[in-house]
Design brief:
- With about 160 residues, the chain is an alpha+beta fold.
- The protein has a single domain, classed as Metallo-beta-lactamase, Chain A (4-Layer Sandwich).
- It has three helices and eight strands, in the order ββββββαβαβα.
- The chain has helices at about 100-115, 135, 155-165; strands spanning about 5-10, 45-50, 55-60, 65-75, 75-85, 90, 125-130, 150.
- Mean pLDDT is about 75; it is low at about 1-40.
Amino acid sequence: MCGGAPHKNISNPVLHLPREKSYVKIKTAYGRELSSMTNTQIGTKALTETEIEGITEYAWDDTHVYEIGIESFPGHITNTCLIIDSEVTLFDTGLGGKKALQEFQRGLEVISTHFGQNVSIADISGIIISHGHVDHWGLLVHPELKGGKVITTETDNGVLKYRMQ
């Protein structure tokens, strides 16, 4: 199934480090293209980008990043990223609620079925929250995500602690 998937090879893999933000976002989060970001060499293999059923995989060496779009509000998509290397980390969770959870689980199914990564919510060992908007942390209330390691800014840590009570 993956053999027929469209993909691009991007020479000089880069990690996006926007100077005006204190966190890393994957390619499309701010509508910027790869070439307009500060470039930092990562890995030894070319970065590949593959999209299957609305899930985009960015892969190099033994690292795979999966962008899963979750509709948080009508017409508003929050991009979450599942990062798989030596462990499984989630970057932003999307809004809490049944619809968001279903979209996230569908993304995990696509990643497992079409990209060959056998991954579930229970495999997530850490979560990075980019900022304190509810559409970026709402699924933290899901029972399988509770109790894990959460990384956020000091300011947003206070917001999350207050909101999660």
